Amino acid sequence: MSTDKPATNWTPTPVDAPLSMHDLAGVLVKHYGIHEGHFDLLVEFQIGTGAVGPDPTALTPGAMIGVSRIGLMPSRTDGLTTVDAAVVNPVKKSRKKTVESSHKTPNPAVQGALRNKAAQRP
Question: pTM value?
Fold first, then answer.
């Protein structure tokens, strides 16, 4: 099998460790903002058929399979890749403002504008 491109020694490497199916389901639960329920990963495939081969003189019937979409589906039973949304993406409790935090000093530009406005008053 020949190509017009010269051979290179470059091999791409992942940015970080690849995610497991369970971890990917957890990421999607967070992405969709789901906080309760059990979910499994949904993988949708596309299948193409046709004549395939290394060159036009050696074609044979073949099929190609590709991943077209990934999502979540509710789970009726827990499996190895099932995630509990309440565990991986719990609802965050709202924090009450304290008296000190509600009286923050404005930034210098705002302070200057307030001083100028006060100086213009009769």
Answer: 0.62
